[in-house]
Automatic annotation (TrEMBL), chains A, B, C:
PANTHER family: DNA-BINDING PROTEIN, PROTEIN, PUTATIVE-RELATED
Lineage: Archaea, Methanobacteriati, Methanobacteriota, Stenosarchaea group, Halobacteria
PROSITE patterns per the UniProt record, alphabetical: PPC (PS51742)
Top-level division of the source organism's lineage: Archaea
Pfam families: PCC (PF03479)
Protein name listed in UniProt: PPC domain-containing protein
Entry-linked InterPro entries: DNA_bp_PD1, PPC_dom
Endpoints of the signal sequence: none
Classification via SUPFAM superfamilies: AF0104/ALDC/Ptd012-like
PPC domain: residues covered: 6-139
Length: 139, 139, 139
């Protein structure tokens, strides 16, 4: 377990804009407020979604596209620097009218409505290549 | 992205009462402690659940009822004023013994056991009708 | 609703070690930092997972084992004392490459990658047997 104590600098409550991209909205908040490290959670609904699944053996992302309205039952993630940009690592659980749940790494999704709570920490998270997983990880 | 900086006033840890309603328990905490704005997350189990799905085209909620014990794998939401009452907007991911996940807007569910962490912010969230989505949104 | 106001003592951001156990990693943080009460949420991926489902009638846990790589779309839980050990009560939503979601009480899972945010509260949570549910509950 790699960890460090963090201190909260500021907190934000946000409402995402209908028609915008879910992840980009979070990154907009991070960029405008110059958040260099943070954790967030959110809920709402999207008009479509692109989920990514990381193939742990081939070390590549596979994508799945859902062209349908979905609830965002839960969304958790964090903000860190990745390749000189603020990146919102975003996982989400989505659902269909039947209650059927879909989930994964949320690459993109058109916002219908979204509510987000973000904590900003002092210092910064910086993602760097990790040899074992071939992912970009912080700490 | 619409957002504002918030400041935490108080924090609460809560255990829901077996047999009570999941969302009403959260609203009871909000009412008793006069929480006018907050975010929470929770986990536990319910004896049944009613999920709502918002039809983004018809602008109406459809409901699905589950008359069976379900784990609450994740629950996130917030507290705001809606029509002169404190409303806990509550999304949840539920699961069956097989591990199958169900998710959505949790309108109601009979608590088996539940653990919740709530943050109260200064000021208040007030939900008002939004023309684009026909939902009641804050900010 | 049983609740109490809590005060945050410290906060931690953590990255789990590839190959370690998901829940044990959280308990390692709790043990090393002597966290007696806390709430956390996390995201990432596991190489396998064991979910438990509590049979509300028979008052026993059933287990389901998944021997496959899964995304951890959302994970929420808390740290409390249980039988003289720090226990991380951990629920999680997992997903397959198709986006199919699985969820429940995460007993174990081999970490592929994991990111966790933990808040430590003053005082302690102590789990004690609850007659109604036959579970060990705090507060």
């Amino acid at each position: 377990m790699h960890y460090r104590e963090v201190r909260t600098k500021r907190e934000f409550a946000a409402r995402m804009e209908t028609g915008a991209d879910w992840r980009e909205e979070i990154e907009t908040l991070a960029a405008e407020e110059e958040i260099d490290a943070g954790f967030f959670y959110a809920l709402g609904a999207v008009q479509d979604a692109e989920l990514w699944f990381y193939d742990q053996r081939d070390k590549e992302y596979e994508t799945v596209q859902f062209e349908e309205p979905l609830e965002v039952a839960a969304c958790v993630g964090n903000v860190a620097w990745l390749d000189a940009e603020r990146f919102a690592h975003t996982h989400a659980v989505l659902s269909r009218p039947s209650g059927q749940a879909l989930a994964g790494h949320l690459h993109a999704g058109t916002v219908f409505a979204g509510e987000c709570y973000m904590r900003e920490f002092e210092g910064e998270f910086v993602r760097e290549p990790d040899e074992t997983t071939d992912l970009d990880l912080w700490l």
